[in-house]
Amino acid sequence: MSSLYDKLWDRHVIAGHGEALQLLYIDQHLIHEVTTPQAFDGLRMTGRKVRRPDKTFATMDHNTPTILADRQAIRDEISKAQLDALARNCAEFGIELADMFDDRNGIVHMVGPELGLTLPGKTIVCGDSHTATHGAFGALAHGIGTSEVEHVLATQTLWQPKLKNLGIKVTGKLKVGVYAKDVILHILNRYGVSVGSGYAMEFFGDTIENMSMEERMTLCNMSIEGGAKVGLVAPDQTTFDYVKGRTYAPKDDAYLAAVEDWKTLKTDSESDYDQLIVIDVNTLTPQVTWGTHPGMGGGIEENVPAQAAANEKALEYMAISGGMAKKDIPLKHVFIGSCTNGRLSDLREAAHILKGRKVAAHITAVIVPGSMQVKHEAEAEGLDKIFIDAGCQWREPGCSTCLGMNPDLIPAYEHCASTSNRNFEGRQGKNARTHLVSPAMAAAAAVAGRFIDISRPDWEKELA
């Protein structure tokens, strides 16, 4: 009897069995422009080649501008240098690259699943903490540092300590207006941002079984915000259907054989977890963060916690007071996108609310698809027209306003309703103030000009 994580680990250990550090074989290495320049320089200094360029895939995402004109003539010298370096390095070392103008381009954690590079049973690494996203497929996926990027490039292996197992059993039916983003924000608020420290965090239960792959990716994406290195969901028919037919996925008989193997990738018993948390989401409401880490949040109808020493610094930075209603937070910006919520289903939810309505006069709303594929699919469905007609800006793909590493910055001291994953000080720009929500909550806030409870039966009256 063993957990899903244990099974994935055991399949990939090639040295150091039973020791504190064990050597894992890496099936897929995803890279981008920010964490690779030093790694490639290290290869040159030691005269090494990339061990398996066929198991390495690159995309440009963190530094890419989302306005087309800026994309064609990047003005930030550091961003341009990193993007140019990735292009040169991929050409020199024979690595496939989806550059800014490639139809496969997008945020690294978007393109892996879209292309079928992300598959159940794989070990997947990337120089980005939100690599945990890929665990939604039953893959052992996590972020690595720049020196580890070099090690994987050179050897296709990685020394790692084995984690413990944390099971999070989620049960119940989510109310209309409540989404996977609300589930993970609730977990972080209730159990803290270090609940998963030292663990692989596996989500399971009837709520998870009824979620789409996009929703499962949202959960695993933010498992890192709970301190976990790895987020996991066991693969099932939903997973198999999503993977089938994608560019790099197995085909025909190979696919059928792979599915039979993937069906074995599940935790045998709840007793296999070192720790178990059980959550009932039947009464869960839309979540809004008020502070400076993802655990500082709660239901929309709950006021900001009363002034306390533990909250003082966060409240001061956010310029809000204890006891304030979340509906009174003075929003000026809305961002819908990121590797957490930049998928087609996220944009559909936002468009459903924005259709036929207008963004409030004091709100700047920016919609950024997470990938070229999502952009093209959204435009084919006419979602871009809905957004533009509502007064939103429709952009090119990229990490965008999730982080202050490209031109898409929130002005200092202004509040943003964001579908991204982090609300740290300065995350979206110097002194910017971030409130994490679901795409539907962000869209409703764009129209209302403030946060509203979209799970209430009469919520649309607040958009009139």
Automatic annotation (TrEMBL):
Binds 1 [4Fe-4S] cluster per subunit. The keyword Metal-binding applies. Coiled coil: none annotated. Keywords: 4Fe-4S, Amino-acid biosynthesis, Branched-chain amino acid biosynthesis, Iron, Iron-sulfur, Leucine biosynthesis, Lyase, Metal-binding. It catalyses: (2R,3S)-3-isopropylmalate = (2S)-2-isopropylmalate. Pfam families: Aconitase. Its EC number is 4.2.1.33. Residues 6-449 form the Aconitase/3-isopropylmalate dehydratase large subunit alpha/beta/alpha domain. Gene3D superfamilies: Aconitase, domain 3 (3.30.499.10). Pathway: Amino-acid biosynthesis; L-leucine biosynthesis; L-leucine from 3-methyl-2-oxobutanoate: step 2/4. One of its GO terms (biological process) is L-leucine biosynthetic process. InterPro entries: 3-IsopropMal_deHydase_lsu, Acnase/IPM_dHydase_lsu_aba_1/3, Acoase/IPM_deHydtase_lsu_aba, Aconitase_4Fe-4S_BS, Aconitase_4Fe-4S_dom, IPM_dehydratase_rel_enz, IPMI_cat. GO terms for molecular function: 3-isopropylmalate dehydratase activity; 4 iron, 4 sulfur cluster binding; metal ion binding. The keyword Transferase does not apply. Its cofactor is [4Fe-4S] cluster. It comes from the Bacteria. [4Fe-4S] cluster binds at residues 339, 399, 402. Belongs to the aconitase/IPM isomerase family. LeuC type 1 subfamily. Heterodimer of LeuC and LeuD. Catalyzes the isomerization between 2-isopropylmalate and 3-isopropylmalate, via the formation of 2-isopropylmaleate. This is 3-isopropylmalate dehydratase large subunit.
